[in-house]
Design brief:
The structure is a single chain. The chain folds into 3 domains: about 240 residues, Hypothetical protein af1432 (Orthogonal Bundle), CATH 1.10.3210.40; about 160 residues, no CATH class; about 200 residues, Beta Barrel (Thrombin, subunit H). The strands form 3 sheets. The chain has a 5-stranded antiparallel beta sheet. A 5-stranded antiparallel beta sheet has the order 9-10-12-11-13. A 3-stranded antiparallel beta sheet has the order 2-1-3. The chain has 22 helices and 13 strands. With about 625 residues, the protein is an alpha+beta fold. This is DNA-binding domain-containing protein. It comes from Pseudomonas lactis. InterPro entries: ICE_relaxase_PFGI-1, TraI_2_C, Unchr_helicase_relaxase_TraI, WH-like_DNA-bd_sf, WH_DNA-bd_sf. GO terms for molecular function: DNA binding.
Length: about 625
């Protein structure tokens, strides 16, 4: 079958030693050969992984895989994979391409293709399907360089990728008028740059494979069957984990890239909120060679700060936050590659305590002349396995001086809010997409089920005491407030939840009637998605954890109960608080659970049109119309 590819092909020429970069005019980059681009240790390792997931000799691999990968490298050069999302750094497109091929081939090993064929046919077509999976993965983003980038050569002329590889120094920028997802349709412009006539002749002989591959090349993944699914899953894996980050990359990332937002958030917290080098309890300690931060404290406050700035997509799970920080090179890992360290902090005054900590490079946070004085004490690393301390993590052992009698422990000590111990890196990273779906109540989460089953049918209409003066509902025209140290003194309550919700909607920090929205317009009133909207409130107000713990509740449950006591929502005729909505999309349908407000004016100055994709579920015909008429 592979005899067609046994003819000798010319090897890719080794790149000549380029002249010093200083010879180039400012802003121009010199194109490199495939051999030079693929010569980095990490890319060589990825190539080795790709070869190991095929069953080919080195000679066959060079024809079927190495040659298309080299053409890909010469075409994408130092372009990033995106302007501000994943792999948003020079060379990110090449890294992403190699990663997604490696992931796709790993996923392919779990499938017998074509599905439903006899074992004999599957064996006969195995190599063709494996190659098609790799090609589909490699090509999935190639259209970006055709429609998203404006590339100018040193002589002032424009370059388009259908001209072939770059041969002059070049500069590029992202087009302001680019259209999202157009790159999928643009794949058809460029696949012949990577796949030659022989490869296409070979693949076209397999009818079950050829159709799905053509759909992928046309950007129609919904029609590409298992081939499209493998590419989408591999793309998600590469984007979610983005292996091999380092501090230099994080600092060089665009201001609107995720890693830059995380870095700016950490710098803000250390300047405005976190307390360092205190004589006793502290949020962190700066030594001569490292910055140590209490893991749960910094994770909760970083999430709250970013959410308060309208930045979505931050994982609700602390372990996932640690992984994101580590993947972007902001954390220094332990000797066994983990994000969380265990250490004992001892001050000169004799106070000592054990913590789970995150370790950062001080240069990541402060310039040379801005660095604070180091901690007048010691941070002793505990080298024993973290797993031994897992049971004790919820109540760190005091090594010497105990907390004075009658003094309440800080919120970050003890109880259920203890620092989580990060799982070994060998385990799969939590699925961020599932995390987000659960957060907005669109997944089959236990939290959603618990919310619906445990809500009492009768609730007291007594309102809680008036909130303190610091809780004031912002006017609709007020801009989204920046997180400030004073925000941590706010006393959460049902009234404060409603004020926070109204202000977030008015400032557009909380979107409505969107696929990820926590608030929708249904039956001419506001529909609050549960438990997602309460989880979001709890995440923006970490101080709620200590209050809820006193009542043995999760923070979002505490907020939910305070909201219910306001009696601002409609109940069903059966007395249930929760209403179910059917969500009807182009290809899928699902259910949401949530609360209907009695008065939409509690959130909206002007009630938006009803979300056409949501309708209330009730066995009685015409129920939705009767609700709107009330």
């Amino acid at each position: 079958m592979l005899s067609l590819f046994q003819r000798k092909r010319p090897a890719v020429a080794t790149a000549p030693t380029p002249p010093p970069a200083s010879d180039l005019p400012k802003g121009l980059m010199r194109p490199e050969s495939a051999a030079s681009l693929l010569a980095t240790p990490r890319r060589q390792k990825l190539l080795e992984h790709i070869w190991q997931r095929t069953s080919l000799s080195r000679k066959q691999f060079a024809v079927l895989y190495r040659a298309p990968l080299e053409r890909y490298a010469e075409l994408v050069q130092a372009f990033p994979a995106s302007e501000s999302h994943h792999h948003a750094y020079p060379g990110g497109m090449l890294d992403h391409g190699l990663e997604i091929v490696a992931y796709a081939l790993k996923l392919r090993q779990s499938h017998l293709l074509p599905i439903g064929a006899s074992p004999e046919d599957q064996a006969a077509q195995a190599e063709a399907w494996t190659a098609a999976v790799a090609y589909a993965a490699l090509l999935h983003d190639i259209g970006k360089i055709a429609v998203d980038l404006h590339v100018e050569l040193a002589d002032g002329s424009l370059w388009h990728p259908w001209y072939g590889p770059l041969h002059q120094p070049y500069r590029f920028r992202y087009r302001d008028d680019r259209e999202y997802r157009l790159h999928s349709a643009a794949t058809g412009l460029l696949y012949r740059q990577l796949l030659d006539t022989q490869l296409l002749d070979w693949l076209s002989d397999y009818r079950d494979l050829w159709g799905p591959l053509l759909y992928v090349l046309a950007g129609q993944y919904e029609h590409a069957g298992v081939l499209g699914e493998l590419v989408v899953q591999a793309d998600r894996a590469s984007v979610a984990q983005e292996l091999g980050g380092d501090p230099a990359r994080a600092m060089a990332a665009p201001k609107h890239a995720l890693q830059r937002k995380l870095l700016d958030g950490l710098r803000y917290l250390l300047k405005e909120e976190l307390k360092l080098n205190q004589p006793e309890a502290s949020d962190g300690w700066l030594t001569e060679d490292a910055l140590w931060l209490v893991s749960k404290t910094v994770s909760d406050k970083l999430r709250a700060h970013l959410l308060s700035q309208g930045i979505d997509g931050i994982p609700a799970n602390n372990t996932a936050v640690f992984n994101v920080l580590q993947d972007h090179g902001m954390l220094q890992p332990t000797l066994d590659g983990k994000a969380v360290w265990r250490a004992t902090v001892t001050s000169n005054a004799g106070w000592t305590h054990s913590f789970t900590l995150l370790r950062l490079a001080p240069a990541l946070i402060w310039e040379a002349g801005e660095r604070p004085a180091p901690f007048a004490g010691t941070v002793a690393i505990d080298t024993s396995p973290v797993e031994k301390h897992a049971a004790a993590a919820s109540s760190p052992e005091v090594a010497a001086k105990p907390t004075p009698g009658g003094q309440e422990s800080p919120p970050w000590e003890g109880g259920s809010a203890a620092d989580p111990i990060i799982a070994p890196l060998a385990e799969a990273m939590p699925d961020v997409m599932e995390d987000l779906l659960t957060m907005v109540g669109m997944g089959d989460s236990s939290a959603t089920q618990q919310d619906e089953s445990t809500i009492p049918t009768e609730l007291s209409a007594t309102r809680p005491e008036a909130p303190p003066p610091s809780i004031v509902a912002s006017s609709p025209s007020s801009p989204a407030p920046a997180a400030t140290p004073a925000a941590t003194t706010v006393q959460p309550s049902g009234e404060h939840f409603m004020a926070w919700l109204k202000q977030g909607i008015a400032s557009r920090r909380l979107i409505i009637n969107d696929a990820k929205a926590l608030v929708h317009t249904v039956s001419d009133t506001a529909y609050l998605v549960s438990p997602g909207v309460f989880q979001r409130y709890a995440q923006e107000h970490p101080q709620l954890a200590a209050i809820a713990r006193q009542e043995k509740l999760e923070p979002w449950q505490w907020a939910q109960k305070r909201f219910e006591k306001l009696a601002a929502h409609r109940k069903q005729a059966s007395g249930l608080n929760i209403w179910t909505c059917h969500v009807s999309g182009p290809r899928k349908s699902r259910q949401l659970h949530g609360y209907l407000l009695t008065q939409p004016g509690a959130l909206f100055e002007r009630v938006p049109p009803n979300n056409p994709y949501l309708c209330l579920f009730n066995e009685e015909a015409g129920r939705e119309v009767s609700l709107a008429a009330k």
